[in-house]
């Protein structure tokens, strides 16, 4: 499922910024929050796809 692969790639791409944000880097925290919106959208796309497959 392509949507799931996209979600995994998004999460992997955020890892460095998450570590920087934990270290106190405010700019990295801002980037993580923005990227998490993309993760949320990707998760919603997966939910829709699964519902579509159930029908």
TrEMBL record:
Coiled coil (UniProt feature): none
InterPro entries named among the record's database cross-references: Hc1 (IPR010886)
GO molecular function ontology, one term from the record: structural constituent of chromatin
Domain of life: Bacteria
Similarity-based family: Belongs to the histone H1/H5 family. HCT subfamily.
Protein task: Might have a role analogous to that of eukaryotic histone proteins.
Entry protein name: Histone H1-like protein Hc1
């Amino acid at each position: 499922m392509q949507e799931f692969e996209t979600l995994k790639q998004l999460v992997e791409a955020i890892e460095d910024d998450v570590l920087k944000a934990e270290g106190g880097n405010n700019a990295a925290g801002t980037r993580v929050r923005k990227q998490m919106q993309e993760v949320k959208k990707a998760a919603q796309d997966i939910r829709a796809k699964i519902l579509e497959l159930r029908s």
